């Protein structure tokens, strides 16, 4: 099968021809149609996440069809079912986090496209218990970003509780989905982009932002919560400054540059600062059931599998409006 592989952090992905993997018990072999490109993939390529398997096939927003089951077992997804494979690829089911409904924090978790090979390839294997059915109305291209940008965004939004006015720092794949859910829930969104990104600000307004500006600006009114998607530590004090007393700032990314020191008064007034890590399967199911009701529409830029490096660079340089998606099944290319 064709695959794009990471041999070592800091080097570009390389095209390779690999044997099709064999699923073990409880695993399915999946023919990949599309795979979303996530900022986390960039953090792995850049060596900012330090525990990848190597060589590695990246990609944790996989949409594909079940081809076979390991060990002859026929589980929840019969052959031919379209499934999604997210970042959370395995949990132990025994540790104190798994036992308390917090499998996203599992001590022994394994992640797709990081410790497990992912979807930058024609085929992948996944633990069937961690796959999701894909809502029928979503084409393969549009479905892919739901699986991480959508899921992590949803968990981040839940962490803001009943907040009515929400700041979104970094208006990329996740924010362009969150804003639709927020609006559906009757909340107002305020979008913060890189300074000078007028296109991004317009994109946010088109999706219903009540205000859009640059991340160095103050919003027109104090916010109830903020979600930081951009991997920029300096946004933490900026977001704390933008939220009212009792507000929460949620850091949604897996990696961030260092947070500069800031005056305690920015946190005072019962403001909260927290991160969001990974996902639970229950939230994944909740979100994928909610998506068609909103209905969430994802905007994607498609790249052929062989152009994975170009897709990653476009993401790095802020050139993607919405989400970047690799098209593995050639028949889906325009
Ligand atoms: Zn566990
Ligand atoms: Zn991701």
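Sequence proposed for the structure above (334 residues):
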């Amino acid at each position: 099968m064709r695959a794009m592989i990471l041999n070592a952090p800091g080097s570009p992905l390389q095209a390779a021809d690999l044997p099709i993997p064999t699923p073990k018990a409880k695993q399915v072999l999946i023919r990949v149609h599309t795979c979303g490109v996530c900022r986390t993939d960039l953090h792995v390529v850049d060596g900012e996440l330090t525990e990848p398997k190597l060589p590695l096939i990246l990609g944790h927003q996989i949409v594909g069809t079940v081809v076979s089951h390991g060990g002859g077992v026929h589980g929840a997804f019969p052959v031919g079912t379209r499934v999604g494979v997210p970042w959370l690829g395995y949990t132990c089911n025994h540790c104190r986090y798994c036992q308390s409904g917090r499998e996203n924090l599992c001590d022994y978790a394994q992640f797709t496209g990081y410790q497990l090979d992912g979807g930058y390839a024609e085929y992948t294997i996944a633990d069937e218990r961690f796959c999701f059915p894909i809502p029928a109305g979503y084409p393969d291209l549009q479905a892919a970003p739901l699986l991480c940008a959508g899921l992590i965004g949803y968990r981040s939004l839940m962490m803001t509780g009943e907040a009515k006015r929400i700041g979104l720092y970094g208006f990329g794949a996740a924010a362009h989905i969150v804003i639709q859910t927020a609006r559906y829930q009757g909340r107002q969104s305020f979008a913060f982009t890189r300074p000078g990104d007028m296109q991004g600000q317009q994109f946010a307004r088109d999706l219903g932002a009540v205000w859009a500006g640059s991340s160095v600006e103050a919003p027109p009114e104090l916010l109830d919560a903020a979600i930081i998607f951009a991997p920029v530590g300096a946004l933490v004090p900026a977001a704390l400054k933008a939220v009212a007393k009792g507000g929460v700032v949620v850091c949604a990314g897996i990696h961030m540059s260092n947070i500069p020191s800031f005056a305690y008064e920015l946190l005072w007034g019962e403001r909260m600062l927290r991160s969001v890590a990974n996902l639970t399967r229950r939230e994944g199911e909740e979100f994928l059931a909610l998506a068609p009701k909103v209905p969430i529409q994802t905007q994607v830029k498609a790249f052929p599998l062989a152009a994975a490096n170009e897709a990653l660079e476009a993401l790095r340089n802020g050139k993607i409006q919405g989400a970047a998606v690799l098209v593995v099944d050639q028949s889906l290319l325009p």
